[in-house]
Each structure stands twice: as C-alpha cells, then as structure tokens.
Amino acid sequence: MIFLILRVRVNHHLRISNKDLAISKENTEQIRKQLALINTMLRHDLANNFIVIKTALQLYNEEKDEKMLKEADIKCDNGLELINSMRELEFSSGDDTFLKPIDLKQVIDKISPEFSSMKIRLRGNCKIRADEAFESVMHNIIENAQSHGKARNIIISFEEFSDFTEIKIHNDGTKIPADIHERIFEKQFSYGEAGHTGMGLFLVRQNINRYGGSIYVEDNDKPGVTFVINLKRA
C-alpha cells in the first residue's frame, strides 16, 4: 500500500514536471521567434537606410546639393534610433506585459521628416497597445506606398470601438489588385515594376500579429490603397 501511494505521488510530480518543461519549451520557442523577427527587422530597415545614405552622398558628389547631406544625416540618426529601439524590444522578448500605450501622433511626427516629398495627414489622435516596433510598422507601410505605389499623399484616420481601435492608412498610389491583397504580406512574394513589395509588409503583419491585432488591404472602388489595422485600445 505504501509503495502504491509513493508511486502515485511520483507520477503526480512527473506530470507537473513534464507540464513545466512543456511551458518552458513553448516560452523558449516564442522568445526565439521574436528575436529572429527583431534581427530581420533590423537588417531590413538598416539596409534601406544605407541605400538612401549611399544614394544621397552620390548625388551630393555630383550636384553639390546640401539637401542630400541633410537627407543622409536624417537616415544616420534614424539608424541609431532604430538600433536603440530594437535593443529595448530585445529586453522584452517573450513578455506580453511589455506592450504599452503608444501615441499614434508621436509616431507619425517622428517618421514624417523621412518622407519630405510626401504629404502625410493624421486626422485626430489615439493610443494603442504595442511596443517600439510599431514605429517600424508605420514606416514600412508609408515607405511601401512611396517606393512601390508611387504615392504622394497619405491620410491616416481611426475609429475607436469598445476594446480595439481601427486605424486606416490610405495612400493615393497605384492600386493593388484584389487577388493579391493577402499575398503581399507573404515573405517571398514578388509583384510590380520593382519586382517585389519588399520584406516590409511581411514584417508589418508579423508585428501586428504579435500585438494580438490584424492588418489587411481594404476592398473598395476608391483610387489608391487603404491598409486597415486593428489593435487593442490603450
């Protein structure tokens, strides 16, 4: 009888240990995926900055246009800020409690100077639950509209519901065919004159999913393209 009781207790402790190991394994895998995402984001965004810097310096050497030096300087600052932001994000890897209130207007005000040739308008302001990577999310959406859609104007609006906020980012660029609205978020998808939509939109969706939200291209007959993001209210 004593051996039976001991056996039951041992089996109980083993089940608890196995459950703890499974949870630990799941958490480790979640952290690994987030660190891989941070690494991909950093390489993608820094590569884009370096391309702009190199192009600006080449134009300055040819034309001696001081504006090109300013453009290169802005991208250098952006790269340094990006590294710092990703470092903070790395510290919070695997911890959902690190999602915090993010002010949409502050994000737009911060990235707008990098798109001096575009007119970016934000109608109102709101706060959503995200982290430092949300700046990269908005930057990639606007950059994609500029470089691939040849857009000149961006209008950002939102609507708040009981537990989430719907953000719409509309641009006046080239319309995206309805049959590839979902495919543009795929990692290796290629389309258009440039031959690709870039890694940017894939990273955008990965981050929005990480926040527990969603993103899609709105189906409508209006000119241009509208991205719709749903995120938890702050």
- Assigned CATH class of the largest domain: Alpha Beta
The CATH homology group name of the largest domain = Histidine kinase-like ATPase, C-terminal domain
Report the CATH topology name of the largest domain.
Answer: Heat Shock Protein 90
User: From the coordinates shown, what is the CATH architecture of the largest domain?
Assistant: 2-Layer Sandwich
Tally the helices: what do you get? 5
Fraction of helical residues: 40-55%
Element string (H = helix, E = strand)? HHEHEEHEEHEE
Beta-strand level of the residues, as a percent range?
A: 15-25%
List unreliable stretches of 5+ residues: none
Main β-sheet, spatial strand arrangement: 2-4-5-7-6
Shape: globular
Question: Can you give the mean pLDDT?
Answer: 82
Report on the structure:
It is built from 5 helices and 7 strands. 26% of the residues are buried. The termini are far apart. The strands form 2 sheets. Strands 2-4-5-7-6 form a 5-stranded mixed β-sheet, covered by helices on one side. It has a two-stranded antiparallel ribbon with strand order 1-3. It has helices at residues 2-63, 66-91, 104-111, 134-147, 200-210, and strands spanning 100-103, 119-122, 127-130, 153-160, 164-171, 214-217, 225-232. β4 and β5 (164-171) form a beta hairpin. The longest helix is centred in the N-terminal third of the chain and has 62 residues, at 2-63. The chain folds into 2 domains: 1-95; 99-234, Histidine kinase-like ATPase, C-terminal domain (Heat Shock Protein 90, 2-Layer Sandwich). The chain has 234 residues and is α+β, with helices and mostly antiparallel strands.
